[in-house]
Amino acid sequence: MKKLIIFACFLIAGVSASAQDVLITQEGDVKKVYDVEVGPSTVFYKEADKADAPTLRIKKADVIMIKRKDGTKYDLGNEVSVKTMPTNIQTSTPANVTVSSDSQKRNADLINQINGFNPEYVGDDTDKDAKRLFCILGYGKDSQVVNDELEVECVTGSMYCYDSKKTVKKAVINGVISNDVTIKDYGTPWYTNPCIRLKLKNRSTKTLYIDLGNTFMTRNGVATAYYIPSSTSTSSSNSSGASVNLGAVAGALGVGGALGTLASGIAVGGGNTSGTVNTIYSQRVIAVPPMSVKELDAQMLFLELGKFCDGFNVFEGYAYDWIPSFWFDKNDGDYKNGETHDFAESTSPIKFGFFVSYYDNEACQTERKMSFNLYLRRIIGFGNGTVYKFTGASSLPKKIPEYNKCISFVGMLSMKKRPKMPCFKRGDK
Question: Which of 31, 35, 160, 344 has its CA 20 to 30 A from that of 351?
Answer without folding.
Answer: 160
